[in-house]
Structures are given as structure tokens and as C-alpha cells.
Design brief:
Layout: H1 2-11, E1 18-20, E2 23-33, E3 36-46, E4 51-55, E5 58-60, E6 65-79, E7 83-94, E8 101-111, E9 117-125, E10 128-137, E11 141-152, H2 153-160, E12 166-181, E13 187-202, E14 207-223, E15 226-242, E16 245-248, E17 254-263, E18 266-276, E19 280-289, E20 294-307, H3 309-319, E21 327-340, E22 344-358, E23 363-374, E24 381-385, E25 387-390, E26 393-395, E27 398-404, E28 408-411, E29 415-419, E30 422-432, E31 440-451, H4 452-458, E32 467-478, E33 481-484, E34 488-492, E35 495-505, E36 513-524, H5 525-531, E37 540-551, E38 554-564, E39 573-575, H6 576-584, E40 589-593, H7 596-599, E41 604-617, E42 620-624, E43 633-638, E44 644-648, E45 652-654, H8 655-665, E46 674-675
Parallel strand pairs: 40-46
Antiparallel strand pairs: 1-2, 2-3, 3-4, 3-5, 4-6, 5-6, 6-7, 7-8, 8-9, 9-10, 10-11, 11-12, 12-13, 13-14, 14-15, 15-16, 15-17, 17-18, 18-19, 19-20, 20-21, 21-22, 22-23, 23-24, 23-25, 24-27, 25-26, 27-28, 28-30, 29-30, 30-31, 31-32, 32-33, 32-34, 33-35, 34-35, 35-36, 36-37, 37-38, 38-41, ...
Amino acid sequence: MLRIIMTCLMVFAAPGPRLSATELSGIAERVSIAGYEVRKVSVSLTDGLTSLQVSADAIAGRERVLLQSPALECQGFLITANAVRCDHARVSASTGGPVEQLRWEGRLHLDRISQALNMEGSLSLLGLTLPLSVRYSPDHGLNATAKVNAVALKPLVTAMRVPSDLALQRGRFSGTVQVSANAGGDWRGQIDGGLAGVDFDTRDGYTAGAELGVRLRADLGPAGEGWEIGLSAERFSGELLVGDFYTDLGATALALEAKVDWRPEGFRIHELSLTDGASLQLAGQAAFRREPLSLERLGLQRVAVAFPAVYQRYLASLLAVWTLGDLETSGQIAGTASWDRQTGWNADLALDRVAIRDRAGRFGISGFNGRLVSAANAPPSALSWQELDFYRIPIGPTNLALRFGRDSLALTEPLHLPLLGGEVGVDEFVLIRPASQDRSLRLKARVVDVGMAELSAALAWPPLGGTLSGDIPSVHLKDDVLSLDGALEFRVFDGLMRAESLSVERPFGVLPTVAGSIHIEQLDLEQLTGAFSFGKIEGRLDGAIEELRLLDWRPVAFDAWFQNSAGATGPKRISQRAVQNIAAIGSGGAVTALSGAVLNVFDDFRYRRLGIRCRLQNNICHMSGIDSNQTPFVIVQGAGLPRINVLGYNPNVDWPQLIAELKAATRGPGISFEDG
């Protein structure tokens, strides 16, 4: 539109018929001025040469048509020796693009000697009216400036009919828009202003923004079929949601610098710089597909993040999906990273004193240092930590060697984890396709001489004696289910404990579910009961917990039984306190004996058999004893004199009540003795 004004003011000088002294007209097929071509120009002067009308089919630049059907109407047209002036001018044209029609009205002045053009008026397009001033000279080219105040964006975007998955709800722009061009037709645009109150979302709901605001500066110009854009943005505000990512931009000091190559099929970002003070620094390049909007490639030559700010502002919402949205963090990570659809992630990052602690108490790590490398043919990652705890179980300082592949993560050498005076050795660990739904895990490990006293203290259990040793067979993870291939065996209380068919659904997610069975053989009852302050029982114990199911690590179903080992040799004796505690289980037990007076004399008694069973369903423990089909059922069958029997009379016990009574048993409650 701006270029037609110069053309229209000069073209009336082209040859054509002269009608009268007060009326002139002329027609030209093609006129070239300042590098532009005006096609099929018609010029007429009427009303005593004070009214000018100019029209044309098109104005074309070097490679394409810029304006279609341009026209100029001028009332108060005046030509002097030094100038051409129009006090009431109107210019209209069609861009042939999303803007379609535009119109300018105002005053113009052309210096005939210097050919400098000044225009003051207003520009109307897309339903908007904007103040517009224009300056042109052959030496300095063209400069047009429009000042915008709180212009609504939604009507503008709707009128432009720009194809996008984004649906703009509202928003405003205030600032200055400039367009400049040289005599050869090369032009650039500049925007300096701010967006405020922007609300948008996508059709799929994946991306949304509320009350967004930003201070921005942009420099843009045509490049082939697209645009070249230089962008600078700061002073962000509002809320942004992209998938699981959410952030309050007003809580950040975010700043963006980028050079963008925009094409119809997508855009590339060169010289990308994203900073948030000292907490976040990213620099590199990126490529996006436009429809639908998606990332194709990302290359970051600089990555520098500092905790806890980065976690609080950008990571907490993403990690909340894995129940990791409430962590205490510190330390720094720096290096390089890249991603594309073919090769996935590659990274070379240095960790400096990173610390992460789950406020729910599930895990924590501090003094986490080393180099994490994920790239083809790269050396293994070498990492170490000073302190690590998992569910309050402390693990000592450790060095870790890992290899990251495109679809796998694996140990490159055995891992030794100091644990409670002993060690957990991991001989094999391979995690395959960790980012996909069919990810799987292979693990082989062993436990050597882990102190039970330290373990029970860490887990807030009653104090246990001895050490824990055993082999962890192959473990695999698939479809978010962790399963054991084979049995998990441990030596504890001088006996054997074996877990079979063990599986954990959602081991790192919400409400983990455990299923499997546990068998015990030849446990030393004296060690076991002594550990729980239950009262002394001598002998050996066999048992099983079948059909075990835990929800959020709490039992909801099982079928458990325990009895003295039939083939065990050695004494079988039970203390009076143990008798009392066993009889108290379920608040329905009783002790039968020859004489209550005699019972009070003895501290312990011999027994022939003992056994108990609990089948847990719907929070009720269905109990039985040695003779499971009888009521009352026998829990302890005495031997010799004085002979005692412990009987159970309540076959259905509330599970929470039973747990409370077992806890109380360690504090030594008393019961009444009956003669029998």
C-alpha cells in the first residue's frame, strides 16, 4: 500500500490524452518506479485539477505481486513548484493474503525535488483502525510506524484465518509496529510491545494458557515463501499448561532470545537462548512441525540448571505423574543435550552436589556427583553418592557405572551397596525401553550379612537379631509390573524364608499392589519371640502366607498358617508370658490346666504341638488352630505335667483389632486362667 502512493503521485506525468485545461487523464500499461512495477495504471485529474484518482491492476515487487487493485483518491490536490500535496487522501488495496482489504486515510506531502514523501493518517485493516505515519526518501527508503493501544487479538486472528490447532479466547496487544524498506524493495518489520490477558487452548486440551503476558520485541521480513524472525521476550506472566507440564510464569525471571526461520510446513529456531536468572540456562537450536504443532529436533549446546528453583518452577508438575511432585532438591547440573525422532535423547551432563529427598520419606540421595553420558559409542557414565536411603533404609557411599543406550540402561560393572553392616551386590541390571509402555527390567542381586537389628530399627520394627543373607533371582519389569523369576530366599532366625510368585504392580506409582506367597522353614522360635518381646518359646517353626496381597504396602488378603516343625529335635517349652499373649489373640482365647494355683508357680511349660491359621478377607481374620475343624480350636497343646492347653473361641476377628492386640502383646497384657 505504501509503495503505491509514490507511484500514483508520479504516474500522472505519463503520456496520455489531454481533455481540457481543467481535466487531465492518462493510461499506461506498465510503470516502473523505485524497483516496483505498476500494471495497467489509470490516472485522472478533475475539478480544476484539484481531485486526483489513480487505479491499477497490481503492484509487483521482484518476485511476487504485493498489492492487488490499488487505488488512490485525493481531494484538495495541489501541485506547486516544489511539492505535491493532498489534504484528504484515501488509499485502498487488497493484499491477496489473510489481511485481504486495507485502507489508509490522511494527509500526504511529496517534495518534488528530493522526492521525500510524508504521510500522516490512520490505517484500517481486519476491523482495526491504527494511527500510521509514513516517511520515504530515495536515500533512506521507506519507514512506516503504527502505535497500537490494547488491540484485541481474537478478532485479528479470526480475520486472518491462520490455520492452527490453537484456539485463542482473548488477549490484547499494545506497542509500536514499524515497517521499513529500501529502494530495492527489501523490507523488514519491527514490533516492540507487550501481550496481556491472553487465554488460549488447543482442540485436544493438551496445551492451554491463562492470563498470559509478555514483553516482546521482534524483527521480521520475507524469506522465500516464509519469514525470518528475530525474537526477544521477557517479563512473562500468567499460567501455562503443556501436557503434564504446568508453571506459573509470574514466579519466574524467564527470558527468551531466538532467530526463527518460518516456513509453511514448520519453523526452525536458530540461536535459541532461554534463561531464568542463574537457575536455568539453555542455548541451542530447535525444529518444529507446524500442523500439528510438534517438536522434531532439539540441540542444546549449553544446559545449566540449579536446584531447587528449576524443580519448583518447571519439574514438579511433570514428576507429579510419578508421585514425585513433592521433593526437596539442591545442587547443579550442566552440559549438553539433544533429541530427535530417530535417535531419541543424547546427553553429556555433569552433576555437582545434587541432593533429592522425598518429603513422603520414600527415598533420598545427597552428594550425588559425576558425569552422565547418553550417546552412541560414548563411555559409561560414572556416578557416585555420599548418602542414599530407600524407605528409611540407609545405603552407604557408592560408585556407579552405567551405560545409556537409545532404548536401554545397564550396569557396566557389578554394583556394591553398603547396607546396615553388610552389602547388597547387584550383578546385573538392564532396563530396556524405559520411555515406552513395553519397558522391561532384568535384575540379579544378592544380600550378604545385613544386620537385622539395624534393619528393624530403620523400619521401626520390633528389634530383631541376627543377619539377613540370600539371593535375589532374576527380576523383570513389564507393563509397570515388577516380577520375580523364581524364588527369593533368605536365611533369617537360623531358618529359611522363601518368597515365590512375587509381583508388584505400579512399584513407583500410586497405590502399589503386591502379590505372592511366603514360606518359612525351621525358624528358631526362641530368636523370633525374643526379638518381639512376646515371651519365650523354644522349638522350630514352619509356615506359609499364601495368596498374599498388599495394597499400598498394607495387607488386604492372605491365607497364613504357622506350626511347630514336626521333625525338629530339641526342647519344646513355652513361657507363661507367651501363653498369656497367645491366648489374648482375638480376645477369645483361654488357657485350660489342672490347677490355676499350680500354673502360677511355673515360669514355663512343655508343649506337644502349637499352630494357628488366619485367612484374611474383607478386613476379617478367619482363625483356626491345630484342629481346624473344631470350635474351640487348639492353639497350643500341652505335654507332661503340669499340662496346659491354649484354646481359641473366636473364629472371626476384626483385623485392625487383631493387629492392635499383637502390638499390645509385646507390652505384656494379662488374662485369666481357668482350671481344666
